[in-house]
Amino acid sequence: MKSHRLRSLMVALLTTSVLLGVSGFALGLLVPTETTVTELAPGVFFRKAQWQPDFIGCNQGWIIFEDFVLVIEASFPNQAEALIKEIRKTTDKPIKYVFDTHWHGDHADGNPVFVSEGASAIASESSREQFLNKGIASFDKQKQEKPAEYGKLKYGVPAVYFPKKMILEDATQRVELIHLGHGHTPGDAVAWLPKQGILFTGDSCVNGAFNYTGESNTSSWISVLTEMAKMPIKIVCPGHGERSDAKLVETQRRYFVELRQAIQEAIAAGKSLDEIKKTIDLPWYKEWAGVTVRERAENIEHVYKELTSKT
Ligand SMILES: [Zn+2]
Hints:
This protein is α/β, with parallel strands linked by helices. 38% of the residues lie in helices and 18% in strands. The chain has one domain: Ribonuclease Z/Hydroxyacylglutathione hydrolase-like (Metallo-beta-lactamase, Chain A, 4-Layer Sandwich). It has helices at residues 8-20, 77-90, 105-108, 111-115, 128-145, 147-150, 218-229, 247-268, 273-279, 283-289, 297-308; strands spanning 36-41, 44-48, 60-64, 69-72, 95-99, 120-124, 160-162, 165-169, 174-178, 190-193, 198-202, 235-238.
């Protein structure tokens, strides 16, 4: 995903929480300036990453098994280091695996930091090509741009790939890593904790104006979200933004369903892409995401291309 500044809604909510003198996070409000760690269930931790004033990376998590720790999302290298410090406050068990929901740098560039701790990175087999091509190229670019953070590191492609599903289980925890299909990227996967009803979604589901559709297939993404919605979810830990419940999956799905529908109708009415970009309106989107649907122009362009492509 990319960094996006959310505006008045977030500011208003933040102001409200400050005025109330309590943590907005505790109230379930959006607090984009805070990075928080919460133990969602015994041994299951969620780290929400702030995205204002600076976007620092994706949300992460860790799960403490009897003999080892599974990390969810490596994030950027500096956030990988920050996460390890947080993990060490909760356990001294070895970090054995880091699960990357997809190849994007803000989710997976921290892999080598975990590898140097003795961990192996895991991702879906459908993401392998992207790690080997786009991932390496983007990491090399970051090395040029952020030598202090990336300079000493060698790109860490996953050591373990799973086809559709991989299960990690012992007497205390069960985590299912599942590739549900092409959503945000061709290789997205989620981490599902069936005992606790907790789903870590990566960028298949985000909470706010974080959707990046550049490598997506929005039709297939809707199917992925339909499958996700069938799970008995209690808590959703999205790739970006505040954690939520099963309703978030429905909201995320609604965005793509209605975006496609509105653009399809406009095309049928003979509107050009430029006209659609100026006139499309989904008022509820702003309530959720803090920006208007028109402000996410690249998503409109992507869906327009999908709907008008001849292939
Ligand atoms: Zn992403």
